[in-house]
Amino acid sequence: MSLEKIISASHKEIAGSRTKNRLTVQISYAMQLIMDFYSTEFLVMMDYIEDVSIICNPTNPSEIHLYQVKTKSPDKQYSFTTIIKDKWYQELYNNAKKYQGFIRSAAVVCNTDVVHNNKNVFPNAKTRLDEKSIQKNIKKIQEAIAKDQKIKEEEVDLSKFYFIRSSLSTKGHKEEVEHEFEDFLLTKDPELQVATVKSIYNLLYDGLDEKFNNEIDENCTDLKEIFNQKGINSRDIKDVISCGLAIQIPTLDKLFSDFNITSVLERKKYAMQYRQIKMDMYSDMMVFVETKKIVLKLIEEVNQSGIDDMPEILLSVHEQVTKNNLISAVYAEEYYLKILIMILIYRYCYGGEIK
């Protein structure tokens, strides 16, 4: 059976068994995973199968990563006895076996150490459970899983199971990840504005929060609906980031200079719409995504057709957009649309398209 069919077929069981463990640290960890998996095609799922799950190649699901997130006050630790008694790995193993053949990794993520006899059980930031140096303790996990599954101990394969020591704190995790996200975006645009980071970050964070809280009818077997309600596709994530970076606003003086805007009356009209664009993009950046795609495609086509002068590109793109009604009327006001096109031409010229 394909991974797609397994996910669809198991929804009723998942919907009935998942309990709401409302921890926003799960959202912060999902943001870290977005950065880790950014170069690939993936879907991040919230509170479905596990606290956080990553589906690889969501158009044709091929592999899955499972993450069970645990937290504790930073001045405390979990005892090894507790994690066995509370069935951390027994439950993770039980979930993972349903996707046997498609599991790439299954991990417990915890923001504190796990100790036994005053020693750290998992020595690394990411410890695979079949590492030879920790087998004395791992044998106890194998025994617990074997008992829970009613199988022989030697049948318990932990080669794809991990313990991940998270650095996130219980109270400041959202701000900590925002700082990491800023560093991540700075690798794509060294001149990034703080307001742009906050806008992109909050939009993605709120989107993950919404997916976490969404509930699906337990009889639903439509994979597209399940993915739509509980996950965010990497294409959409990259669109939001790309849009935010491409929309990052140069100063009016730079725009007026590059596009030869000398009329005082026109400058005042552009300045008014410039302020409106800044308010729009920081309140709801998603509305720019499709418009930005259309405009950037036209800018590239016009430039490649032989028009190489910035003011001429502006006139040509504006004419095509308005003549063919390519964008929503919300953005069609002359000076709003023109200043938006100028911003995107500027980014196309000086920064290029951000992938």
UniProtKB/TrEMBL annotation:
Molecular function GO labels: nuclease activity
The superkingdom listed in its UniProt entry is: Bacteria
Any one Pfam family match given in the protein's UniProt record, by short name? Cap4_nuclease
Please state every residue range assigned to the domain named CD-NTase associated protein 4-like DNA endonuclease.
15-211
> Which InterPro entries does the protein's record reference?
Cap4-like_endonuclease_dom
Q: What is this protein called?
A: DUF4297 domain-containing protein
